[in-house]
Every structure is written in C-alpha cells, then in structure tokens.
Write a structure and sequence with these properties.
Shape: globular
Radius of gyration: 21 Å
Strand order of the largest sheet: 2-10-9-8-5-3-4
Strand content: 15-25%
CATH architecture of the largest domain: 3-Layer(aba) Sandwich
Number of domains: 2
Number of strands: 14
CATH superfamily of the largest domain: Type I PLP-dependent aspartate aminotransferase-like (Major domain)
Largest sheet: 7 strands, mixed
Order of helices and strands: EHHEHEHEEEEEEEHHHEEHEEH
Number of helices: 9
Distance between the termini: 35 Å
Helix content: 25-40%
CATH topology of the largest domain: Aspartate Aminotransferase, domain 2
Length: 357
C-alpha cells in the first residue's frame, strides 16, 4: 500500500483500526453473513451498534443526562436551518468568524430576526473577535468553534446568558468540552469522528418546544429524539465507522490524551512556519487552530507556491493546498494524523528552504 501523509481537511485521515474494522464489517458484519450495508437497521445487531455509539459519545464528552444525542443526515449545512427552525422565535445572535458561520447566519435570517454580535470579515476571518456583548433578548447565540478555511479556533467554553449553540464540526473530540454550557452542539462527522455521511447533534431537552411555527418532521429535533435517530433509515455505514473511531479515541487515552498530542503536533508545525523565512502563518497567533494550520509563502516568495505544492506532493504530502477561496496552504492535523506526518511536512519545508536559499 502506498504511504502518504494525509492532511486533507475533510473527509480526512481516520484511525487505521477503524478503517480495518470497517473493511471486515463490509465483508461480514458481526458474523451475520451479511455486510454492514445490507443489514436491517431494525435488527438487534444494529441496535447494539447505535447504543454503543451513543454510549461512547456520552462517556468521552461526559454528556449530562438531560441532553439527547442524535445521528442525522444532511451534514452541518442542514443544521444551519434546523437550529433556527427549532429555536428561533423572536431573535437570534450569531458570531461571524468564517465562511461556515456566515452560511449558518444566512439560513437563520430566512426564519427571523438575526443580529451579528461581531465579525472578523474585516481581516479575512484571520482572528476571533473579542470584547463583544451577547444580547440578553435573543433566543440563542450561535458560534462556530473552529474555522477550517482560515485556521482560527475558539478553544474555551463561552459562558453565555442565553442558550449557546455551537457548530463543532471540525474540532469535536479533539479536546474536552463542558457540554453543560451549551444548548446544542452539532457538526458533520468527517473530521475527527468518522467519514462523511452522518451528522451528530447533542441537544439539551429544555430548549425545544418553544417556537410557535410548524416544524417539518424531518427538521424537528424532537422527531429524531423520539425515534432514537431512526425516524428514517439512518446512515448505517458512517455510524458504524464513527463507533469504531470513538473506540480508538477511548483506547488511546480519551480526550485529555488526544488533546495533548494535538497541541504537540500543531505547535511543531507552527514553530516551523514561524522559523522558516519562506512561509508565514495567516491566523492571529492567539487564535490559531490546532486542527487546521493555514499558511502562505512569505513576501517576496509568492511565486514559489506552485513549486512547493509540487515538491510536497513528490514527498507524499496530500491535501495541503489551501481552500480554493483563499489559496496558500492548509495542513489539517486531526486526531488520527500521526506526529510522524507532521514531522515529514516540516522536513519537506526545510528541504525546500535549502533548495531556495
């Protein structure tokens, strides 16, 4: 098998044990003689997987009993409208820190009054706004904790006077979270918790049932809570891989150990970016993400971008090209990315530096 260093932003690198377990389950799931993508989602074998998956979520994040965990389709983008459908009665507040935060805000505006408490658009979303005031007269306050395109991250659990909703698509399970500070946490799985195709939502029960509008059944959180995430046929295979991925997280020391490794990986790469005269980071130092590390060629070396991408590719680097909207480079250092891959990228950057000195 070809060896590469997978820095893709999502779908991204997954733990090899999870991939191997998925391959086995595709051939024969749990000794049933059927593939995991052939079995009935109403069978006892599948019910056991769903129960294990939820149990792992609850254990790893220490989710309180008054929260429900559901697995849905539609990606985080579907949550952009599901959240306001279920929570927005009079007014909502949003923090605009990137493309995905802006898209979430746009969907909410279609359902009611929305205020932007702060935005970092003035500097191409390269920082997290500070010193803003959360209005007390809104139904909820929405944040995006990690911004994959611009490489910024909110790494603290905000204390909010109103229900706090967070899109944690790209940093969930990378660190411990005080779930009790949030009304809803949601996200697509395709970063740290599985492949594309399943969305998670962690919902505090008391925030539901307060809007007067009709909520379509498939967009109603209560539908999926009451149906145990099986109101309609769930995305069986992604949920299975998610379960195997979370088992790997648990077996590797849980979130405290995972976070320690993530911080070490990110710091190694940021140190090289700051040292190497050919490169420069794009995110404000105090707001740098440990999941998505964004950088560009330094001033006077912009003409070397294509050459570095080609050189890195020849060294086995995959997925380091920046998002098409911003260019440059992006190295996503999610949970399952080995530290050796980060070191390989650093070696590549240093070798390219020598070639161009």
């Amino acid at each position: 098998m070809k060896t590469v260093h997978n820095f893709n932003a999502g779908p991204c690198v997954l733990p090899r044990p999870a991939v191997e377990a998925a391959i086995d389950a595709l051939k024969d799931f749990n000794g049933t003689g059927m593939s995991v993508i052939e079995i009935s989602h109403r069978s006892k074998d599948w019910e056991a997987v769903m129960n294990e998956c939820e149990s792992l979520w609850r254990e790893l994040l220490n989710i309180p009993d008054n929260y429900k965990v559901v697995f849905l389709g539609g990606g985080a983008s579907m949550q952009f409208c599901m959240v306001p459908f279920n929570l927005l009665e009079t007014k909502a507040a949003y923090l605009e820190t990137g493309v995905w935060a802006k898209k979430a805000l746009k969907e909410a505006k279609g359902l009611g009054e929305v205020v932007t408490v702060a935005s970092s658009a003035d500097k191409t979303y390269s920082y997290i706004p500070k010193g803003y005031e959360i209005p007390s007269d809104v139904d909820y306050f929405h944040i995006t904790t990690n911004n994959t395109i611009y490489g910024t991250e909110i790494r603290e659990d905000i204390s909010s006077p109103v229900p706090l909703v967070a899109d944690m698509s790209s940093d969930i399970m990378s660190r411990s979270v005080d779930v009790s500070k949030y009304a809803i946490i949601y996200g697509g799985a395709q970063k740290n918790v599985g492949p594309a195709g399943v969305t998670f939502a962690i919902i505090r029960e008391d925030v539901l049932g307060k809007v007067s509008r009709y909520i379509p059944s498939m967009l109603n959180f209560k539908t999926h809570i009451d149906g145990g995430s099986m109101y309609n046929t769930p995305p069986v295979f992604p949920i299975y891989v998610m379960t195997q991925t979370l088992k790997w997280v648990k077996e590797n020391g849980g979130l405290e150990a995972i976070n320690k490794r993530n911080v070490e990986k990110a710091q190694l790469l940021y140190n090289e970016i700051d040292r190497n005269p050919l490169f420069v980071g794009t995110a404000a130092t105090e707001d740098r993400s440990i999941m998505n590390i964004c950088f560009v060629m330094a001033e006077g070396h912009q003409d070397k971008e294509a050459a570095f991408l080609e050189f890195a590719k020849s060294k086995g680097m995959v997925g380091i090209k920046g998002h098409r909207s911003v260019g440059g480079f992006r190295a996503s250092t999610y949970n399952a990315l080995p530290k050796d891959s980060v070191q390989a990228l650093i070696d590549c950057m240093q070798e390219f530096e020598k070639m161009n000195s």
